[in-house]
Design a protein that fits this description.
- By secondary structure, the chain is α+β, with helices and mostly antiparallel strands.
- It has a single domain, classed as Amidase signature (AS) enzymes, CATH 3.90.1300.
- Helices cover 35% and strands 15% of the residues.
- It has 15 helices and 16 strands.
- Strands 5-7-6-8-10-9-14-15-13-11-12 form an eleven-stranded mixed sheet, with helices on both faces. It has a three-stranded antiparallel sheet with strand order 1-2-3, with no helix packed on it. Strands 4-16 form a two-stranded antiparallel sheet.
Length: 493
Amino acid sequence: MVAEGGLWIGSDGNYLNNFVIRKRCVMTNVELHYKTIKDLANLLQRREVSSLEITRDILKRIDDLDSNYKSYATVMSDEAMQAARRADDQIGAGNYKGFLHGVPIAVKDLCFTNRVRTMGGSKVMENLVPTFDSTVVARLAGNGAVLLGKLNLTEGAMGGYNSAFDVPLNPWNTERWAGASSSGSGVATALGLCYGSLGSDTGGSIRFPAAACGTVGLKPTWGRVSRYGVLALAESLDHVGPLTRSSADAAIMLMAISGYDSYDPTTLSIPVEDILSDIGNGVKGIRIGLDEKYVKDGVDPELSRAVLESVTLLQSLGADIVEIKMPDVDEYISFWRTLCAAEALSAHQTFYPARRDEYGPYFREWLDIGAEVRGIDYVEANNQRNQCNGLIRLAMQGIDVLVCPSTIGPAYPITTEQMYGPLDTNRDLSYQRFTVPYNYNGYPTLSVPCGLTKDGMPLSLQFVGHPLSESLLCKVGQTYEHSTKHQLVHPIV
């Protein structure tokens, strides 16, 4: 094994992770709980393993580990075992439904589940028991997936937690950030406590936990996935999408949950294509846009170096690297606060202000901000959003995919007390530089691991595509993964 830049090359010529941090991680493709959905599906279809066996093992792993890492809000053990038995019977009878059939997954506790609490990380909703499944949960079930349970999140899917609920802990370092609202999804997926999960992203909350916990995170095109039965933070910015351990798995989950939904008129009528049919065809001729200044300015040097080395690798694999100039988007990010706070107030009007004191200090203050937004402020913020969208659209002309970091740096140190609040009004908004603009315009993004820092924390790069280009993003992601093997490195627990 020899070094090249910040990456390592194995004897087979493939790029591997930096093993300076060998004590902090393990590279494996052996353990059943770390199998990809795609690989596990092959075993299930051939009946070399049973869904019941797998589900029982994952539930035991949750029982063994999650008291320390706190990714689950509700474990649905009985329901999961029943679903696993049903899947085994169906597969045994020749009624195989596809890649998710019999595969244990979990969803963020914003997604309604029939007769199971959906709390949204908020005490005001701790007794909310829906009488129907959200569309995404129903579609996962329709594909034969086994729902293990509901995953912890920040209150209302904003930035801080309610003290009535646990804070998920980053398995790479429990004193580092686990990635905001879909933190439970990132932690559970990284630890092998599910084979894939659903998160939501309003300003980065699929990409942040993916980056912090070393997983893949796919934020689909806005409207690609139904939000019916998913508790809202800010409806014009909210996206629902998967966190997985490979780009192919993200594609599998996206294909299951996407498509038009009559219950959500904002969904797009264009069906998602069979992403897997093209995913292995490489990146030759794909035009990948790079603005080196955009990648480096204000970004942790280890991260920017890893992203640029990844671009060099993709070029060696046949991609055309196109130099572009990205606009300075930082001036537009502050308007996200106005949009998100005002829309959050609308989403929580049933409980706020009547039950204001039951919210945790972080989200309570966020709703207070929303209550102060005037109509003229919202209009101005929306105008600024549209200007930002236009500048990015112009910058991305002539390329197929933009490459950039998922965040400005690796997961940072933080305490549980800080995560419970109060709201930090002085937070550096540049942390959302690579996320918020793609919530503004609804473009699809794919975050994938691109190495580890010298102290063993995950690094993540992001591919941004044009609307409805998830198939292309997953193809680029899979090609990159197969040439680096970063997705095979897991935290030691």
